[in-house]
Design brief:
heterodimer; A: 295 residues; mainly alpha; ABC transporter involved in vitamin B12 uptake, BtuC; 2 strands; globular; B: alpha/beta; Rossmann fold; 2 domains; seven-stranded mixed sheet; five-stranded parallel sheet
C-alpha cells in the first residue's frame, strides 16, 4: 500500500513540473495558434540563465526569478515579433519548419557557447526530502508543485477578471470575432507570447535545483507540453494543471508497475485515445478549440 | 575548449580543401567520425580530442609512412547522421578508412556503410558486443567490449564485494538499471548472462529512456527488488538523475556504473559528497597505477597544452591509445589502407598488457576485436575517480558505501 501512495506522490510532484511548463504553451498555442517546436528550448535557455546567475553571482536559483522572468518575457516578445509574426499567415508546415529550425539553432548555439557539459547547481536543498508517514517527498519538487498550483490560480484570476485576460480568452475562442469586437489581436499576440514564455521560464528555473542543465535538456519537454495542453484543452488553465498531474501519474505508475522503458509509450497511447474520443481535450471549451493549430 | 575544436576543424578543412601541406608532404586522409553536436556531444568531442592529440604528435614526428595524417571530420550527432556522414566521407571526401565513434549505435550505423563499400573502420571507443560480431571483414576495434565490462563487474563482485559482505557469490543479489539504446541493452544483456553463469542472482532488470527527467519509478522497482548492488548503465544526464533520486528516495544498495555518465566530472560536481563511494567500471581513468600505464603522464601534459584544460574523462585517453595503434598498423602497411594489407599488419600486432597509456595490451582476434583490452574498476573518492581494482592497476583499496 505504501508503495502505491509513494508512487502517487512522485507522480503528482512530477506532474506539477509538467503542468508549469505547459501553462506557458497553452497561452501561446491557444492565443497565437502556432505550434512552437522551440518551446523546450525556452525551458533550456531559462535553465542556463539560472545556472549562470548562480555560477557567476552566487544567486540562489529561486531568487533568480526576479531576473530570469523579465528577461524571458522580453525574449518571448522578440521571438513573436521577429519570428512568429512574419509566418503567422503561412501554412502549418511552414510554421513547423521554422520553429523546428529555431529549436535546432538554439540547441547548437547553446552547445557552441556553453559546451556540452552537464551543469548542475548545488544548493542546500537540492537533494533534501521530507518524510511523512514513510512517504518521501523531494523538497525542490514540492516547491515546483506548489509554484505550479499558485501560478495557475494567478493566471486563472488574471484571465477571468482583467480586460487583457478577457481579450486573450476571446481570442482563444475565436480570433475573427474577437477582432470584430474591437480586440487588438496583434497587440495581444505579443503579450500572450511574452507571458507564456515567462511561465515556461518559471518552470525552467524550478527545474534547476534537481535537474542538470545541458543543450538538449529541453527536447523532451516540447512534445510533452503539447500532450499536456491538448489533453487538458486549449484555453483551460485548470485543464492544463490536471492534465499535467495526470501525465505525471501515468508516467509514475506506468514506469513502476509496467516498465520504466514504456512510460512514454503509455502516455502517448492515452493521448491518442483521448484525441479520438474527445478532440477538444478533457477540459476543453468544446467546438472551435479542438484544432491542433493546423489552420 | 569549443574554440579549439572549431579552430582544429577549420584547419583540417582548410588543409583538406587546398591540399597544401606545411612541408609539402604527401597526405594520408582518414575519416574521424564522432558525435560533436547533439546529446552525446560532450563525450563525443572528448573522444575526438584523444585521436586528435595522437594525430598531432604523430605528424610532428614525421607522420605515418612519411605521410602527413589529416582528419576529415564527420558529425555523428544521431545514428542516421552517422550513416549519412559515413557516406559523405567515403563518397565525397574519398577517405579509405574511418575511425571513431564513441557511441555504439552510431558505430553500428556508420560501419554498415563502410563494410558495404569495403572500407576499413577502426572503432576506438564504442563497446556494444555486436560491433565486432557481425562478421565484417573490415571492422577493427582497439577498446574493450561490453562483455569485457561485464567480466570486470562480475569479477569484482565475486572476488571482492561478496567476500566483503561475507556472502557466497550464489547469495549475491544484483539488479540492473540501464538506458534502453544499443549501449545499455548490450551491456545489460552481457552482464546478466555472465552474472548468471557465475551463479550470481540477477533479481531485476530495469530499462529506461536516457532522455527522461524522472527516474523515481526505477528507484521504486529497485527498492522492491532489494539487491546487494545495482549495476547501472547510463549516459550522463540519467547517471546523475539516477544517483540523485537513489539518494533522495533512500535506495540502500550501492551503485556501480558501467562507464559513460558515471565517469565524467559533471557526475561528481552534481552529486558532491553523495558521489563518494559510487563504483564504476570503465576505460582507464587518470588516477591509476602509473607502472601499469606508461605514457599516461605525457598524454596529460599534451592534453593540457593542446586544449588548455584537463580531460573531462578517460575517453580521450582510450582514443589516443587506439589512434596510435591504428597509426602503427598503417605504418606497417607502408601507408596503404587496403583491407587485406591492414588485416595482415593488424593480426601481427602483439603488445602485452601494461605497455600502453591505457595499460591495455593489443592482440586482434579474427573478427577484428582486440582481446587484450580490459576495463578497470574505479570509485569516486573526494571528487576524484580512483582506480580500485584489480590490484595491479589500483591506487587505493575500494570501500563499501554506508
Amino acid at each position: 500500500m505504501d508503495l502505491y501512495v509513494q508512487v502517487l506522490v512522485s507522480g503528482l510532484l512530477l506532474g506539477g513540473v509538467y503542468a508549469l511548463i505547459s501553462i506557458g504553451l497553452n497561452l501561446i498555442f491557444g492565443v497565437v495558434r502556432i505550434i512552437n517546436f522551440a518551446h523546450g528550448e525556452m525551458v533550456m535557455l531559462s535553465m542556463y540563465l539560472t545556472f549562470w546567475l548562480n555560477h557567476l553571482y552566487g544567486l540562489d536559483p529561486y531568487l533568480s526569478v526576479i531576473i530570469v522572468l523579465p528577461v524571458m518575457f522580453v525574449f518571448g516578445v522578440m521571438f513573436q515579433r521577429l519570428v512568429v509574426q512574419p509566418i503567422l499567415t503561412t501554412s502549418a508546415t511552414m510554421k513547423i519548419f521554422t520553429t523546428v529550425g529555431i529549436s535546432l539553432l538554439l540547441q547548437n548555439l547553446a552547445l557552441i557557447f556553453w559546451k556540452g557539459d552537464f551543469r548542475t547547481v548545488r544548493t542546500s536543498y537540492s537533494m533534501s526530502s521530507l518524510e511523512v508517514l514513510d512517504i518521501i517527498i523531494s523538497v525542490p519538487r514540492l516547491v515546483a508543485f506548489g509554484t505550479a498550483l499558485l501560478s495557475i490560480i494567478i493566471l486563472y484570476a488574471f484571465l477571468k477578471y482583467t480586460y487583457v485576460g478577457k481579450a486573450l480568452r476571446a481570442i482563444v475562442e475565436d480570433h475573427s470575432v474577437a477582432r470584430l469586437m474591437g480586440v487588438g489581436v496583434e497587440k495581444h499576440y505579443w503579450f500572450a507570447f511574452g507571458l507564456g514564455t515567462m511561465f515556461t521560464a518559471l518552470g525552467g528555473v524550478l527545474l534547476v535545483p534537481f535537474s542538470s542543465v545541458y543543450p538538449t535538456v529541453g527536447v523532451p519537454f516540447t512534445l510533452l507540453a503539447f500532450v499536456v495542453v491538448v489533453l487538458g484543452g486549449l484555453g483551460s488553465m485548470s485543464g492544463t494543471f490536471l492534465a499535467g498531474l495526470f501525465i505525471g501519474c501515468v508516467e509514475s505508475f506506468g514506469g513502476t508497475f509496467v516498465s520504466p522503458g514504456l512510460k512514454e509509450a503509455i502516455y502517448f497511447a492515452i493521448f491518442i485515445l483521448v484525441l479520438l474520443v474527445r478532440p477538444q481535450g478533457l477540459f476543453g471549451k468544446g467546438k472551435g478549440t479542438e484544432e491542433v493549430g493546423l489552420k | 575548449m569549443r574554440k579549439a575544436l572549431i579552430l582544429g576543424l577549420s584547419i583540417t578543412l582548410l588543409l583538406t580543401t587546398f591540399g597544401a601541406g606545411a612541408f609539402g608532404a604527401e597526405k594520408l586522409e582518414l575519416g574521424a567520425l564522432y558525435p560533436i553536436s547533439g546529446g552525446l556531444a560532450l563525450l563525443g568531442e572528448e573522444s575526438w580530442r584523444g585521436a586528435e592529440i595522437a594525430r598531432l604528435v604523430r605528424n610532428e614526428a614525421g607522420g605515418v609512412a612519411g605521410k602527413e595524417i589529416v582528419f576529415a571530420q564527420g558529425d555523428a550527432s544521431t545514428p542516421s547522421a552517422a550513416r549519412s556522414e559515413a557516406e559523405r566521407l567515403v563518397e565525397q571526401k574519398k577517405v579509405a578508412a574511418i575511425l571513431g565513434t564513441y557511441s555504439s549505435s552510431r558505430c553500428m550505423a556508420a560501419s554498415e556503410v563502410t563494410a558495404r563499400k569495403g572500407i576499413v573502420y577502426f572503432e576506438l571507443g564504442a563497446i556494444a558486443n555486436s560491433i565486432t560480431t557481425r562478421g565484417y571483414k573490415t571492422m577493427w576495434r582497439t577498446n574493450p567490449t561490453a562483455a569485457d565490462f561485464s567480466k570486470a563487474q562480475v569479477g569484482f563482485i565475486t572476488d571482492w564485494y561478496a567476500p566483503k559482505l561475507g556472502k557466497k557469490p550464489a547469495e549475491m543479489r544484483v539488479s540492473i538499471a540501464h538506458e534502453d539504446s544499443d549501449y545499455g541493452t548490450s551491456v545489460a544483456d552481457s552482464f546478466s548472462n555472465l552474472a548468471k553463469a557465475a551463479g550470481i542472482q540477477v533479481v531485476s532488470v530495469e530499462p529506461y529512456a536516457a532522455n527522461t527527467n524522472d527516474l523515481s519509478s526505477v528507484i521504486f522497482r529497485l527498492r522492491k527488488a532489494d539487491p546487494d548492488i545495482v549495476v547501472a548503465v547510463s549516459y550522463a544526464n540519467d547517471a546523475i538523475l539516477l544517483a540523485r533520486q537513489a539518494y533522495e528516495l533512500k535506495l540502500k544498495a550501492p551503485l556501480m556504473g558501467t562507464g559513460g555518465g558515471h565517469s565524467i566530472q559533471s557526475f561528481a560536481d552534481a552529486l558532491g559528497k553523495e558521489a563518494d563511494g559510487v563504483l564504476n567500471v570503465d576505460f582507464t581513468q587518470y588516477e591509476v597505477n602509473e607502472q601499469f600505464t606508461p605514457g599516461l603522464k605525457e598524454f596529460l601534459a599534451l592534453y593540457k597544452k593542446t586544449f588548455n584544460e584537463d580531460p573531462r574523462s578517460g575517453h580521450s585517453l582510450a582514443n589516443f591509445m587506439g589512434a596510435n595503434v591504428v597509426f602503427d598498423i598503417i605504418e606497417k602497411t607502408g601507408g596503404s589502407l587496403d583491407p587485406e594489407k591492414i588485416r595482415e599488419a593488424a593480426m601481427a600486432v602483439d603488445i602485452a598488457p601494461g605497455n600502453t597509456p591505457t595499460g591495455w595490451g593489443v592482440k586482434f582476434e579474427e573478427n577484428g576485436q582486440n582481446v587484450m583490452a580490459t576495463p578497470l574498476v574505479t570509485q569516486w573518492r573526494d571528487g576524484k575517480l580512483v582506480t580500485v581494482w584489480p590490484e595491479s592497476a589500483s591506487v587505493m583499496a575500494p570501500i563499501i558505501r554506508e
